[in-house]
Amino acid sequence: MGLCFPCPAESAPPSPSPEEKRAKLAEAAERRQKEAASRGILDIQSVEAKRKKREQLEKQMEASGPPAGGLRWTVS
């Protein structure tokens, strides 16, 4: 007849160490993020290149500061 408990001679399968579990979970999370980020995008490399270029332009704008002339107001 069937029992709910394993035989005493039978040992439970070894469970992975906490570090291995953490590493696997981190890999799975990273893979899910990449899949979610690329969903609907045909050329991922071009999107990444555009994003990097935009970030570089923003850094250059921050480094250069405001224009020398400042703001101009015109009233018509």
Short descriptors:
mainly alpha; rod-shaped; Small VCP/p97-interacting protein isoform X2; 76 residues; SVIP
How would you concisely characterize the structure shown here?
The chain has helices at 18-38, 44-64.
Give your account of this protein's structure.
By secondary structure, the protein is mainly alpha-helical. It has a domain at 18-61. The protein contains two helices and no strands. The longest helix has 21 residues, at 18-38. The radius of gyration is 28 Å and the shape is rod-shaped. The mean pLDDT is 81.
Write the layout of secondary structure elements.
Blueprint: H1 18-38, H2 44-64
Largest beta-sheet characterization: none
What percent of residues adopt helix (DSSP H or I)? 55-70%
Low-pLDDT runs of 5+ residues are none
- Measure the end-to-end span: 95 Å
What letter string, H or E per element, gives the SSE order?
HH
- What is the CA-atom radius of gyration, in angstroms? 28 Å
Keywords: Lipoprotein, Myristate, Palmitate
GO cellular component, one term: endoplasmic reticulum membrane
Pfam family, one: SVIP
Protein name: Small VCP/p97-interacting protein isoform X2
